[in-house]
Design a protein that fits this description.
heterodimer, A: 259 residues, alpha/beta, Rossmann fold, six-stranded mixed β-sheet, three-stranded antiparallel β-sheet, 36% helix, globular, B: 286 residues, mainly alpha, disordered N terminus
């Protein structure tokens, strides 16, 4: 393990299996034609184990549909475990694209509602609102309904909201991908700040540049399993060469976009 | 790789112990968590109401127009066209209170059974005690009911009733109705998550309930069969509707026994609903 072994363990995943239900647990059709077996589950994570220690920024890489996002949802306790165990010193906060945002509401109302969903009181939110609006850099657009926003503006609101309170363990799912360079720089600075406040970060991204810039180590996931885990540069290089080799062998096929 | 679990090795703070992220809080903690999210609960209920009817020319006025038009249709058909009374004096007043109260009690239920699936992306994005969703939903429907009280008062007055102190009994009666509806929403939210089919069958069950709760007629003016009447008397929907009627209609006061029975139903339903919903807490992200 390439992490700083001296650190305190803040998140421990042991042989975790996570799946999505796409149909009823017991359907009439299964009873009749499949002998009671249900075909209504998609297993997205199949036996992943990893440990995150204080100060770690773990980059998670892999193709679309490899189970990266599902793993983060499982770590945040949002998706029930099929088997295995996920333990943490405090409930990790997941930051992903869009799940919290309501398109009909203004950016400001979304900030308020999102922060309250994350556990801040209405008063605390009101106190921080000016700072949050400033950090988001949205200016007057903050009072427009969200459906008028661009993807980048949405990701600004989302990032601002989810980092309003410094969580001990932060899980980031493709969160930096939307914003422009000026905001990305700010966001990375914020992530580093959280890291220094005795936190830990798990980061899913398709931008290997971004992973290189912030991850202290990398986990490579494929088909719901860990392929390799270790020092950032080593794992990324091997991942890149494998992806290149696969590209040469066959033309790239479109992947299911549930990654 | 075998991860090291350092449960007891840390001595510098209790919070350093590793705990399962999927652990269900104790019931007492759950209630505390719910209380901590009350701001979120109210805010999301009100935002939901605000986002409705924004495209309509009459806007929020529809919250009043909807129950009003609902009753006007009944008034036209039963009062003007057919001129029936089904053995009840002042039938339109009786009908108005019955329909609007029944709407508060039963109309939210199909939506409650789909609530968790409708909010799945929210549930999979952030943790909060999930009971917040049915509570916010019930508050939304309660606020929606407030204009219905105005419609009731309008038809009660135009039906010839005069303003009396007993009208104030509407307040506790409506609170009992709300408590009961909240409990039912909690129960059906979980049932609907496990069995989608229940949600689909629910509208038909509610229609059956409409006929079985004395909304459109007074059961005692149709039958003298003691068993049938006992069924109606034990039906919480009928009991709660009778309380509201008792407050407004001088000729149909509600007995003390009815108040006790309805209160017991409401409190018991809420208690069962909270415990039942809390029990499924870990599964709602499925």
């Amino acid at each position: 393990m390439a992490s700083n072994d001296s650190g305190r363990v803040v998140l421990s995943v042991q042989d975790a299996y996570l799946s999505y239900r796409v149909g009823p647990r017991h359907s009439l059709r299964d009873r009749v034609s499949r002998g009671g077996h249900s075909a209504n589950e998609i297993e997205a994570v199949r036996g992943i184990s990893l440990t995150v220690t204080e100060g770690d920024v773990v980059g998670i890489i892999g193709l679309n549909g490899s189970g990266k996002s599902t793993l983060l949802r499982g770590c945040a306790g949002l998706l029930p475990l099929r088997s295995g165990d996920i333990r943490a010193t405090s409930r990790p906060t997941l930051l992903s694209v869009g799940g919290l945002l309501n398109q009909q509401m203004t950016g400001r109302a979304n900030l308020k509602m999102g922060c309250m969903a994350l556990g801040l009181s209405g008063l605390e939110v009101d106190e921080r609102m000016d700072d949050m609006v400033e950090f988001s850099g949205l200016g007057d657009a903050i009072d427009m309904p969200m459906f008028t926003y661009s993807t980048g503006m949405r990701s600004r609101v989302n990032f601002t909201m989810c980092t309003a309170r410094t969580p001990e363990i932060l899980l980031l799912d493709e969160i930096l991908s939307g914003g422009d360079h000026s905001f990305q720089a700010k966001a990375i600075a914020r992530i580093n700040e959280i890291r220094q406040q005795a936190g830990a970060v798990m980061l899913v991204s398709h931008s290997l540049r971004e992973i290189r810039r912030s991850a202290t180590r990398v986990v490579w996931v494929s088909e719901g399993k860990v392929v390799e885990e270790g020092e950032t540069e080593e794992v990324i290089l091997r991942y890149e060469s494998t992806v290149q080799a696969a590209k040469k062998r066959k033309p790239p096929a479109p992947q299911a976009n549930s990654g | 790789m075998k991860p090291a679990v350092s449960d007891a090795s840390d001595t510098d703070g209790v919070s350093h112990a590793l705990r399962s992220v999927h652990e269900r809080p104790t019931f007492r903690n759950y209630l505390t968590l719910m209380r901590e999210r009350r701001g979120f609960t109210w805010f999301s209920a009100i935002q939901q109401l605000r986002s409705e009817n924004v495209r309509a020319a009459f806007g929020s006025f529809w919250f009043l127009l909807t129950p009003l038009l609902n009753i006007i249709v009944y008034w036209l058909v039963f009062g003007k066209l057919l001129n029936v009374n089904r053995g009840v004096e002042n039938y339109i007043t009786f009908l108005t209170i019955g329909i609007l109260t029944f709407d508060l009690l039963a109309r939210p239920l199909p939506g409650a059974s789909q609530l968790l699936d409708r909010n799945l992306s929210l549930i999979r994005s952030v943790y909060f005690p999930r009971a917040v969703l049915p509570v916010a939903y019930s508050i939304e429907h309660f606020i929606r009911f407030v204009p219905s009280i105005l419609v009731m008062i309008f038809f009660v007055l135009s039906g010839g009733e005069s303003v009396r102190w007993s009208w104030l009994l509407v307040v506790p009666a409506v609170l009992i109705a709300y408590t009961f509806m909240l409990g039912m929403s909690l129960i059906f939210a979980r049932i609907g998550k496990v069995a989608v089919d229940v949600g689909l069958a629910l509208p038909h069950f509610i229609r059956l309930l409409l006929y079985g709760s004395g909304v459109l007629y007074l059961p005692s003016s149709f039958t003298l069969d003691k068993r049938v009447l006992a069924f109606f008397d034990a039906n919480p929907f009928f009991e709660i509707i009778s309380l509201v009627r008792g407050a407004f209609i001088e000729a149909q006061p509600a007995s003390g026994g009815l108040w006790i029975a309805a209160t017991a139903w409401a409190v018991a339903t809420l208690a069962v609903g909270l415990v039942f919903f809390w029990h499924g807490e870990a599964s709602y992200g499925e």
